[in-house]
């Protein structure tokens, strides 16, 4: 069964850290670039960062650059999102998504994703 499953969301105070995981099954994981999207209340979903299929390259939106880090372990079919220095404006449902190959990630083009997870909620609040 093909799926992406996010985990690790929760409530954290401003300035805190959280690590999300995205575990894949049902497809050849290391052929796919992976992105993290987020959708804040009342806003459109946006792509925030991605990693190429091999893990050698990443792409970050300016809003998270220097605070968030994406990594992957192809042996575990898992991508990680380490979030540091969290701000209230980071509150959102976070989704991981996969698209075949990696050129889309290198150019920061977060559309045409092949597979999606159901999301995990991150709330940054005191």
Question: How does this model look, in words?
Answer:
The protein is mainly beta and 126 residues long. It has one helix and eleven strands, in the order βββββββββαββ. The protein has one helix spanning 103-106, and strands spanning 3-7, 10-12, 18-25, 32-39, 46-51, 58-60, 68-73, 78-83, 92-100, 115-116, 120-124. The strands form two sheets. Strands 2, 4, 5, 6, 9, 10 and 11 form a seven-stranded mixed sheet that branches. A four-stranded antiparallel sheet has the order 1-3-8-7, with no helix packed on it. It is globular. The model has no long low-confidence stretch (mean pLDDT 96).
Task: Please provide the count of β strands.
Answer: 11
Strand content: over 45%
Low-confidence stretches: none
Total number of helices:
1
Oligomer: single chain
Radius of gyration: 13 Å
Tell me, briefly, the overall form: globular
- The assigned structural class equals mainly beta
**From N to C, what is the helix and strand string?**
EEEEEEEEEHEE
Helix content, binned percent = under 10%
Write the layout of secondary structure elements.
Elements: E1 3-7, E2 10-12, E3 18-25, E4 32-39, E5 46-51, E6 58-60, E7 68-73, E8 78-83, E9 92-100, H1 103-106, E10 115-116, E11 120-124
Parallel strand pairs: 2-11
Antiparallel strand pairs: 1-3, 3-8, 4-5, 4-9, 5-6, 7-8, 9-10, 9-11
Concise synopsis of the structure shown:
With 126 residues, this protein is mostly beta strands. 3% of the residues lie in helices and 48% in strands. The protein has 1 helix and 11 strands, in the order βββββββββαββ.
């Amino acid at each position: 069964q093909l799926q992406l499953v996010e985990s690790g969301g929760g409530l954290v105070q401003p300035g805190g850290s959280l690590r999300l995981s995205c575990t894949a099954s049902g497809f050849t994981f290391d052929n796919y670039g992976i992105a993290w999207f987020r959708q804040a209340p009342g806003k459109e979903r946006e792509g925030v960062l991605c990693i190429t299929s091999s893990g050698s390259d990443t792409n970050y939106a300016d809003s998270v650059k220097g605070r968030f880090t994406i990594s992957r372990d192809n042996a575990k079919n898992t991508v990680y999102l380490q979030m540091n220095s969290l701000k209230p404006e980071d509150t959102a449902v976070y989704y991981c998504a996969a698209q075949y190959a990696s050129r889309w990630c290198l150019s920061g083009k977060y559309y045409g994703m092949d597979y999606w997870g159901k999301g995990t909620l991150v709330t940054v609040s005191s």
